[in-house]
Amino acid sequence: MATAEHPCWPGGSNPPGRPENGPLTAVAARVAGEQEVTGPNIYADRQVTRDVYTLRARVRPGNSGGPLLSPDGAVDGVVFAASTDQRDVGYALTAREVAGDASRGATLTAAVSTDGCD
Question: What is the pLDDT of residues 38-59, one digit of tens each?
Answer without folding.
Answer: 999 888 999 999 999 999 988 8
